[in-house]
Amino acid sequence: MSNSLVLIFLALFALSSASTDAFESIDCGGSGYYTDENFIVWTGDDEFMQNIGDTKVVQSGNAVSDHVMSTLRVFSSTRKKNCYSIDVDKGVQVLVRASFYYGNYDKKSAPPSFDLHFNGNYWDTVETSSENVVYYEAIFVVKDNGVSVCVAQTKPNQFPFMSALEVRSLDSHMYNDVDAEYALFLKTRTTYGAKDIVRFTSDPYDRIWVPGAVGDRLTTVTSTAIVIDVSVPDNPPQAALQNAITTSSTSQHMVLGNGLFPAKPVPIYVNMYFSEVSELDPSTQTRSFQVFVNDVPASQQAIVPPYGSVTELYIGNITSSSNTSFTLAADSNSTLPPLINAMEVFYVSNPMTDGTNSKDVEGLASLQSQFDVLKEWGGDPCLPSPYTWDWVNCSTDATPRVTALYLSGFNLSGPLPDFSSMDALEIM
């Protein structure tokens, strides 16, 4: 068996042991199955959405080598939101990534903007691009069975669309320095000194690690370690740690993050990863440095990167602004300058909603099961509050109740199912 096949087998084995609950790759607008160059199997989106009859599949207007990005699903209905639903068990931590490639599909050269939701929570405002794929990534613990991802029109004639949707399970010990009531929204995930993107199969969780630009007076160095033990809480892939950036001398500081954050204050969650690139001679060589956030030490202890393994530094409970930066500075007794191999930066969400009351969700599911025309609505029935289903009215409670059903316009016929669990109904 060739070395490449061995590596693929080991990566797939790692995936099966580390992430067995969900590994869905949905090609929006696609059909059948497709295996890409990363050995990821993509499937068409028909089975993951309710209102497929009220959408259209279009080809990208630009030539694109990525098969998955060559089609998109456009939502041109008047419905408040359009959703994909993926089965995931309650309590599982997931990485969800939604990708958008406008590609001038409508020949208008007008990339649309629209809102993105997950499980009844506001996620972000999608700003699409004429030329580039944009993607949004969230990490959160599923509070109920399933993941829903919705797009919602916010501007006239700017129709939401989606090109790809991915859901990956993560181990429960990963990213757990933030309370499970909060989601993490990816700002950047960087592998320093690398030339190529790192993702599956090198990362069994299929996180996307993007090569970081090497700034002025910084040098790229490559690890001589054959194997790097990545047994730290967030399991960075070895491939993301094989290179690093460093300064030219111990007197020179390394500054990261300038211009990364918006002027509006936002809570952030940062992981930094450090792995020594060569086996040091302890009698003559030491590498020891401090990490500062706006001149405040991020840790009580100095960072001493281990050779053949990795040290992870978590930085949390801070609010960033446009002036926020991270500085790596060598200790006075260090003979070698600071280095860094990889970094992840997330925004921390507001507390996630618990969703619409489960009694009402159960009753609405019974109605949808009985009447096909009602199946076209998906996602949370009441949340986010401006985007309730068109035929329900909801209370303003933290856990909303459905107080009214408006079904007269659907010409329903046949017996009503049991929806007696909806005990907050006032109007029908």
UniProtKB/TrEMBL annotation:
Keywords: Membrane, Signal, Transmembrane, Transmembrane helix
Keyword Transmembrane helix on entry: yes
Signal peptide: 1-22
Gene Ontology terms: cellular component: membrane
Record domain Malectin-like: where: 26-348
Name of one Pfam family that matches: Malectin_like
Localization (cell): Membrane
InterPro entries: Malectin-like_Carb-bd_dom
Membrane topology type: Single-pass membrane protein
PANTHER family: CARBOHYDRATE-BINDING PROTEIN OF THE ER PROTEIN, OS07G0107800 PROTEIN-RELATED
This protein's name: Malectin-like domain-containing protein
